[in-house]
Amino acid sequence: MLDESKPLFLAVADQIEDGVLDGTYPEETPVPSTNELAAFLRINPATAGKGLNRLADAGVLVKRRGVGMFVAPGATDLVRRRRREDFLQGYIAPLLREADHLGLTTQELITMLTEEDAR
For the HTH gntR-type domain, which residue ranges apply (predicted)? Predict the structure, then answer.
């Protein structure tokens, strides 16, 4: 289902990107059409189209005139690189700032992460 904490067109784009990353939509294969997405997700076709167009503008999808949208060659790496950078900026950098404020060393932070991962 869609993440309702963000605009629907962004949630549509994220869902397609998730499918690219997990292999649901391999490179050079078609993604659902605007109308298919709209019907399945029960959203306005313009909203679905906006999400798909956002991915096309980012180079994740390519439009094939008269045929539809396809996953671009190299899209998996493109999405993975962008999401890793987003993860770094959204999670790791704030984590490191807070750890610094708390006087945690890098090793203490690694130990905390390792222990949490083991749970």
Answer: 6-74
